[in-house]
Amino acid sequence: MPQTLLGSLALAYQPLWSKTRDLAGVRLHMLDVPGGVVDAPHLLQVLRNFWPHRNGSLILSPGSPGLLAALLEKGQDYSPLP
Q1: Is residue 80 part of a domain?
Q2: 2 inside domain
Q3: Entry pTM
Q4: Residue 56 is assigned to a structural domain of this protein
Q5: How is the chain classified by DSSP, letter by letter?
Q6: Angle between helices 65-75 and 40-50 (to 10 degrees)
Q7: Given pLDDT bands bounded at 50, 70 and 90, which one contains residue 61?
Q8: Is 70 exposed, middle or buried (0-12, 13-18, 19+ CB in 10 A)?
Q9: If we measure between CA atoms, which residue out of 82, 67, 54, 1 comes closest to residue 28?
Q10: Does 14 reside within a domain?
């Protein structure tokens, strides 16, 4: 059975509001679950494909040093969204 992202991560989000009370972005908190292996390139590709960038910024907040290292290592291959 293939490993899925949702089986490897616990996710939470926090809306970020502007001074005018408009949605400015979202902070996505991510914590890898014990025994789970996060496929960082796949996670970044999914977020890139499905985040509606017109709705503001997406700030990734990894909850472990290993997840942070994996995202930083693989994230350099991704250019900013237009």
Answers
A1: no
A2: no
A3: 0.76
A4: yes
A5: ----STTTEEEEEEEEE-TTS-EEEEEEEEEEPTT----HHHHHHHHHHH--GGG-EEEEEESSHHHHHHHHHHHTT-PPP-
A6: 70
A7: very high
A8: buried
A9: 67
A10: yes
